[in-house]
Amino acid sequence: MKTENHFDVIILGGGPAGLTAGIYLSRARMKTLILNEGTIGGQMVLTHEIANYPGVKTISGFQLANNMMAQAKEFGCELKSNIVVKNTDLNGRIKSVLLEDGRKYSSYSVILSPGGRSRSLGVKGENELRGRGVSYCATCDGDFFTGKEIVVVGGGNSALEEAVSLTKYAEKVTIVHQFDHFQAFEHAIEEAKSNPRINFVMSSTISEFKGTESLEGVVIKNLKTGEEQDFRTDGVFIFIGYMANTESLKGKVELNDSGEIIVKPDMSTNIEGVFAAGDSISKRIRQVTVAVGEGTIAALSAAGFVNQLKKTKEHELLFQ
Amino acid sequence: MLYTNLKHIESSAEHAKIINENENVMVICGRMGPMCIPVYGIAEELETEYKHVKFCDMEFDNPESNVIRNLPEVRGFMGIPFTIYYKNGKVVKATSSIQTRQQVTAILNEHFGATVNA
User: Fold this and answer.
1) CA neighbours within 13 Å on the CB side: how many for A292?
2) What is the pLDDT of residue B118?
3) For A183-205, how does the pLDDT look when each residue is reduced to its tens digit (9 = 90+)?
4) Does some domain include residue B2?
5) How many independent structural domains does chain B possess?
6) Nearest CA in chain B to A141
7) CB spacing of B37 vs A145 below 8 angstroms
């Protein structure tokens, strides 16, 4: 058990929640490893400017993530990014994580902070035409559609606000939304409705993307009548919310109907020694500041759990 | 300005020099945005593993990046970053928008050869 691959706590996910937990645990002299499937920083690095992080006037999400990562490393936290987790065993006194490349790590406690990702429609042609007319980022790709006709899918704040911002480039923006009403704030709805370049197709969705070298059109399906019609467009921007990265945790930890991890106020899950924090847990508000707070609580709870475990007879037996 | 630890290409002349003086080159042409940052991060990590590949970036909004934006291989691309792989100065692969580490290493292994430890 006393190997270099055994840790006090393994943190699965290196967004603001996971990095904060890494800072707190390493500073408390807990041997800590952060395993992250993508780039360190999670959704935070995708934010161009963060202007509501207390104590910091404005900072890019990329810079804030790098600052947090440097801070965690300075306290001795180990980080491994762009890894692929093949399997996790969360039961028992010793938890383990197996990576796709064969590396295996164990720990007394695990903090789950895998975060979330943009939801995709999951229909024919979407993957093939990603970056060739199908986009999930208006600030990244908006200028490719200058003078063109585009579609925005979604009805929340992001969809309506980005649709308005895309009218800086596009000649015409058609918002396609699955319901007959929007979920966005009233001011966002009013701004979109008063923009002469924006049209609306309600109670509908895209059922297919068409094109070879680049997007040429879509099939719009009316969800009330089932009727489908071809719609010519140069680009489609998809803003239909986020989903928790918890597919691999199904059956291993208690999730709600949306696939989010259910936690108690101390961030503990239904599995002893397993805690969770960040955008993957069941909650209403998703902000960097909230994730940081949850990461702190999860870290202190995990540290308390590990310290208690180390005092027990059972712990002595683990090393015999 | 791209805040990465990769070699920054500032001009078309520098671009030409790098792709001609290095057998295997990967150039990520993008901005500091959500689709680009993950690709820079992957390249930074792979730099230590793929020592036979030169990893670079170039600002998409630098007019000199026309040398990439006008390539026939990027026709139809409407998502940044444009990532170009050069072998002996010739384009062997180009991708649009965000990529995973697995997608990048698959291209590197196919066109430039895997690392000893990969």
Assistant:
1) 12
2) 43
3) 999 999 999 999 999 999 999 99
4) no
5) 1
6) B79
7) no
